[in-house]
Amino acid sequence: MIREALDTHPAVLAARQAQDSARFDVEGARWQFYPTPSIAYEATSRQTSAAANQRSGVLRLQQPLWTGGRLTFQLDRARANEQVSGSAVDVERRDVALRIIQALGELRTAALKRLAYRRSGALHVEYQALVQRRVAEGLSPQGDVVLARSRLVSVRADLEAAQVQQAQALNRLELLLGRSLELEELAEILADARDDAGADWANPGLEALLTRAAQASPALQRALFEIDVRRTEVDLARSSLAPQVSVRAEHARGSTTSSASTLHLSVASNFGPGLSDRSGISAALRRVDSKQAELEARRRDVADQVRADYLTAESSERRLQVLSDAAALAADVLVTWRRQFLAGRKTWQDLMNAAREKAQADVQLAETRSVYWAAVQRLRIAADGLDAYLDGLPAAERPATLPPTDVRPSTPSSTEGAR
User: pTM value?
Assistant: First the structure.
């Protein structure tokens, strides 16, 4: 499902289109190093004499020789933007994957709760028939039938709520995949009542998870690349203070003059109005500081999410054994209470309470299993990266996606030389 959604979800497709656009921006920045051709044609008409009419054409070719590094910095910025757009694709892919896992977890919870309530409903139907026979035989009061009907209605209401929850989760999956789904396609997940979340995942500990999550996070990777973009903008702002040296070749032809070819060497500076260029440099530096603060904020968000999922997984893992034992004990108590009720040592309300406690134990176990499953999947994606998660690679074979977070990757430089 995740693989299918990554190929079809519009958010991922939009991010990939933006990445393609950034690649063309890099191509455009490379063309800035080449000569710029231009053609001009002028025609002058005079009313006094047709012979005085003039036509002239000029072919120009201008090549920058030195720009204070402006062309190189523009190329570096385009390349950094391309890396930002690439990491944005990874961010969208991970977001879609996590949303599918969340929807599957909710669907799994609803399906297991629905199963528990259906079993409880069947049991209450059986108990209602039992107490009706006892009332007909004069062994139980009419009030026991009312209690049995009340509990049956309550279970059916809970079953209806679980069915609505299941339909909502299924609808979320359909929206993520862009197609209709049948529950039969999800039978393996929905029918699996085992605790299989940690079967192929070893808990490496919180500190190891935090380190690996920081290295694999596409959000942190994107923040680092955005810092690179802002730093190239600082270099661009500083290069505006340098003059531009260029050579221009011209060839002119006209109706009244002979052809002429000229070669011009020009040095030009454009400092902007007042001291605006220096203000632009200061503004660019502040944007670098802003992105560095944003990087730290994203790093804390990643750590907070990993800690939350880790605590959820640990707590759920501990609760699973307790709730499994509780569900088994509730089933034993229910059998014992029924036998003692028939023997006259327990009341009808005791038996009804035991049936309700059995259903509650089954529901709590179902919810905890689903919460544990979803938390483990999120932790695996955070620690190993989405691609490694989908490929099922062990952590040792996970490809490095990001250097340590306290080391900024070097900004790609132009191979054309600093111009």
Answer: 0.79
